[in-house]
Amino acid sequence: MGAKDRWTVDFKCSGCGQNGVIEFSENDYRYTPPERTANCKQGSFAVRMKDKLDAIAVCMKCRTENIV
Hints:
The chain has no helices and six strands. About 0% of the residues lie in helices and about 55% in strands. The chain is mainly beta.
């Protein structure tokens, strides 16, 4: 049975300087490809995965897209 690895990344909006924290999680199931997700834990950002490694955090204050 697999488990999820979790880690957090601190960052700052390049537009307005708001601080944010994103939590990434990744499964490690044996017979499926890794799947990574991202969730905002601090700050007001809308977060989605850009590709397999990076996430995009859109600041709700200034609408700047930040690659995390």
